[in-house]
Amino acid sequence: MSSYDAALRLSANFAEALNGRGSALRALGRFAEADECLDKALTHRPGWSVAHNNRGNALKELGQYEAAMSNFEAAIASNPDDADAYCNRGVAYRELGHLERALADFARSTRIRPDFARAHLNTACTLLLQGDFASGWRLYEWRSRTKQSAPREKSHSLEAPLWLGEEPLAGKTILLHAEQGLGDTIQFCRYAPLFAARGARVIVEVPRALKRLVASVAAVAEVCERGEALPHYDYQFPLMSLPLAQRTTVDTIPARVPYLRPDAGKVSE
Questions:
Q1: For 114-163, what is each residue's pLDDT tens digit?
Q2: Any idea what DSSP says for residue 149?
Q3: Do the beta carbons of residue 220 and residue 192 sit within 8 Å?
Q4: Helix 49-61 to helix 65-78 angle, to the nearest 10 degrees?
Q5: What are the beta bridge partners of residue 174?
Q6: Please, are residues 120 and 141 in contact by the beta-carbon 8 Å criterion?
Q7: Would you list the DSSP string of 248-266?
Q8: pLDDT in tens, 201-260
Q9: How far apart are CA 5 and CA 25, in angstroms?
Q10: Residue 175 dihedral angles phi and psi, to the nearest 5°
């Protein structure tokens, strides 16, 4: 940020510095300031697709989807082959409830840039919203290639092979490991009994905050905190890929509830 400020002290109308500063402000969560800065960048360099994209993303974070849409459309008008602009507009369409338009924009984005992981991932999320689990969960595997996919916060690597859905599990130990937020971990640990039913011993690795709660899942033999030493296991598998591996449909979501039970001593009356 200081470098952008220094550049702007030398030239207050330096559009590239205004754009960079606006992007930095957005990354810091200061969306209103980012919008103001990016608006200035576009004043000094009208029609610049990069700044329109960045401003649209700032406005989207502010919940101003129509204004964001206008900026994405301006970016596309300036550069019809801007894969980012189509992807960004698709996200805005989805937030406004226009799922088919969103899918069309994501498709256009990946035609321009076939390896665009973020567009594939947004396609997946939109298909899942429509209930198309077969296509949605398959495309959700693109998450590992996105910048938002954080590396495992571990002091060790996973040494056992990935379970590919074909190997028999009777008498084997499988490690199911969390990779995203607490809510996702809570939702997807419901799959553990399916592995126990195949004869596997199930270990689940989770963030510290969920260790005691996930231990209440009947099929889980052991729960490890992320980062601590792991016991022996024969296979490993990420929790967020379980619906794909189990060929889950809307009708076959594991629904035996409650599958989690909080510590009675920690429940408020």
A1: 999 999 999 999 999 999 999 999 999 999 888 766 544 443 467 789 89
A2: S
A3: yes
A4: 170
A5: 202, 235
A6: no
A7: --GGGS---S------GGG
A8: 999 999 999 999 999 998 999 999 988 899 999 999 999 999 999 999 989 999 888 999
A9: 12
A10: -100, 120
Is the distance from CB of 226 to CB of 207 less than 8 angstroms? yes
Cis peptide before 258 (omega within 30 of 0): yes
pLDDT for position 170? 96
Q: First vs last Cα of the chain: how many Å apart?
A: 48
Q: Which two tokens stand for residue 27?
A: 């990354």
Which residues lie across from 220 on neighbouring strands? 202
Tokens of 10: 């030398």
For tokens 């028999």, the residue is 168
Give the pLDDT confidence of 42-69 residue by residue, as tens digits. Answer: 999 999 999 999 999 999 999 999 999 9
Q: What angle do CA 217, 223, 229 make, to 5 degrees?
A: 170
Tokens found for residue 93? 């369409």
Paired tokens of 59: 């406005």
